[in-house]
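Limitations
The C-alpha cells in this dataset are predictions for the assembled complex, not deposited experimental models. Users should treat interface geometry with appropriate caution, especially where small molecules or nucleic acid strands are included. An illustrative entry is reproduced here so readers can see what is and is not provided.
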Amino acid sequence: DAKTTQPTSMDCAEGRAANLPCNHSTISGNEYVYWYRQIHSQGPQYIIHGLKNNETNEMASLIITEDRKSSTLILPHATLRDTAVYYCIVVIYNQGGKLIFGQGTELSVKP
Amino acid sequence: DGGITQSPKYLFRKEGQNVTLSCEQNLNHDAMYWYRQDPGQGLRLIYYSQIVNDFQKGDIAEGYSVSREKKESFPLTVTSAQKNPTAFYLCASSIRTGGVKETQYFGPGTRLLVL
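Predicted assembly:
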C-alpha cells in the first residue's frame, strides 16, 4: 500500500496562500492522490484529486511533481474557516475503494 | 438536498447492549462504507458494500455487523462483542467502487459513548 507522509502541523496567516506538502514516494502508476479535510467533530470533506496533471477547482489547487513522488495542496487565500486537519491519501485501485487515512496536517489559519 | 445523513449524532451504549447506527444517502451511489475514528487518529475501514445485498469486511470488522437491503441505506450494528466501541463513526458513499476515480463523500458522523 502506498503510504503518505505529511507534516504534523502548519500555520498560515489569514488571506495568504496555504501550501500543504505530501510525500508519496511508493505510489503506483494507477493510483490517484486525493485530499480531504476534517474540521473538528465533523465528517471529512472532499477537496480535490489528481493522477499526474495539476488540478484546480473552486476550493484548491493540486500540484503533483513529475515523478509523482510528492504533491502540494494549495489554498490560495486561506480563511479562518480553513482551519482543519488535511489528509493526503493515495487511493488503492480495485480494493473496495478503501481510503487509508494517516495522521494528516493540522492547519491553523491565524488572523 | 442531496447528501448523506447519519443518526443519531450521539449514542450511548450500556454494557452488553447492541446498538445500530443509521446511514442514509440520496445520491444514488452504489457503494457505501463505514469507518471508525479514534481520538487523534485517522479513519479505519469497518465494512463496505459495493451493491445491494452484498458487503465485505474491512480492516476492523470484528464486533460489528452490517446489512444492505436497500441502495440508500447501510446500517451498522455495534455488537456486545466489540469491547472498545467508544469512537466517532463515519459513513461514506461513492458512485462506484473498484476503480481509481471514485470520490467518497462522508456523512456528519455519530459519536458512540459507552456508559
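Some entries come with short summary sentences. For this one: The radius of gyration of chain B is 13 Å.
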